Amino acid sequence: MRERAVGPVLMNGVPTDPADAAVSVFDVGFQRGYGCFETMRSYEGSLFRLEGHLDRLQRSASNLRIGLGDLSLLASWCTQAARGGDGVLRVYVTGGTDASALGTNNVTVVYLEPLAEIPSSVRLDLLEAPWHADGRVSELTGAKTMSYGPNLAATIEAWSKGYDDAALLGNGDVVLEGPTFSLGWVTDGVVFTPSLESHILASITREATLEVCDRLGIEVSVGRFHKDALVNADEVFVMSTVKEVMPVTAVGEVALVPGPCTARLLAGFRELVAEETS
Ligand SMILES: Cc1ncc(COP(=O)(O)O)c(C=O)c1O
């Protein structure tokens, strides 16, 4: 098995050998997926948009009524773990072991994962996502909770059909997002992406990519779009902390080639990262 963590795992800030880092089987994070998490990128030891990620974690935790404690302390654990170099920083906050007072006695886990080999493109299956909020508001709307079972199941279904991952569709075949990434596409030089009103995750990479479009003078259209818009696009790409901006080479049965606009967006995104992390 590949190495899981660069350096120690911080358990409530306490450096712990990865082999000994464990959460109780009585924690509702384990038992019910009741908790929240964040995934950030460390570029040579510097975190991209730490503040944005911590803001989102704070929103997720307050939706779940989990007390995060001192955010500046959590930020210091993140920067400490990121010093391990290039990698993916994982932060998990569990619901705790006291079922009568959920959100107290919780455990915060922070560690840096080595970068896995990242493919240069991705092939997407089109899948319906009946569990997705898609505009319906609930207690957990917008929260990045540890209950990612339906998202993982969609990825596994896509794998079983020979794809790398899934593009999720909501009511009326509206394009939403991927299980762990946002979606964008290019038609006639305009970049399209689903709007946050569909309650897709407020992706940090999507936001940064829209800033890149602004910088490059690329027209953007944000809204609710039918899957036909995606299937008939000139270029399709995914956006996430781990994948950055990555071309899509298949959407269902439609084959695509990585296009020039996606390449410009990736270059622009990397420039933004270099400016903010150097
Ligand atoms: C459902 C979903 N959408 C989009 C994203 C991309 O978000 P970010 O750019 O903040 O990594 C993620 C990331 O995990 C996700 O889980």
Supply the helix-strand structural class: alpha+beta
Shape descriptor reads globular
- Terminal Cα separation, in Å? 32 Å
Could you tell me the number of beta strands? 14
Strand content: 25-35%
Bound ligands, each once: pyridoxal-5'-phosphate
Order of helices and strands: EEHEEHHEEEHEEEHEHEEEH
Number of helices: 7
Give me the CATH architecture of the largest domain, please. Answer: Alpha-Beta Barrel
CATH topology name of the largest domain, in short, is: D-amino Acid Aminotransferase, Chain A, domain 2
Q: Which helices and strands, and how do they pair?
A:
Blueprint: E1 6-11, E2 14-16, H1 28-32, E3 35-43, E4 46-47, H2 50-64, H3 71-82, E5 87-94, E6 108-113, E7 122-128, H4 149-160, E8 165-169, E9 182-187, E10 190-194, H5 204-216, E11 220-223, H6 227-231, E12 235-240, E13 244-251, E14 254-255, H7 260-277
Parallel strand pairs: 7-8, 7-13, 10-11
Antiparallel strand pairs: 1-2, 1-6, 3-4, 3-5, 5-6, 9-10, 9-12, 12-13, 13-14
Helix pairs in contact: 5-7
The protein binds pyridoxal-5'-phosphate.
Notes on the protein architecture:
This protein is an alpha+beta fold. It folds into two domains: 6-113, D-amino Acid Aminotransferase, Chain A, domain 1 (2-Layer Sandwich), CATH 3.30.470; 122-277, D-amino Acid Aminotransferase, subunit A, domain 2 (D-amino Acid Aminotransferase, Chain A, domain 2). Helix content is 29%, strand content 28%. The protein is built from seven helices and 14 strands. It has helices at residues 28-32, 50-64, 71-82, 149-160, 204-216, 227-231, 260-277; strands spanning 6-11, 14-16, 35-43, 46-47, 87-94, 108-113, 122-128, 165-169, 182-187, 190-194, 220-223, 235-240, 244-251, 254-255. Strands 7, 8, 9, 10, 11, 12, 13 and 14 form an eight-stranded mixed sheet that branches. The protein has a six-stranded antiparallel sheet with strand order 2-1-6-5-3-4. The structure holds pyridoxal-5'-phosphate. Pyridoxal-5'-phosphate binds next to helix 5 and strand 12.
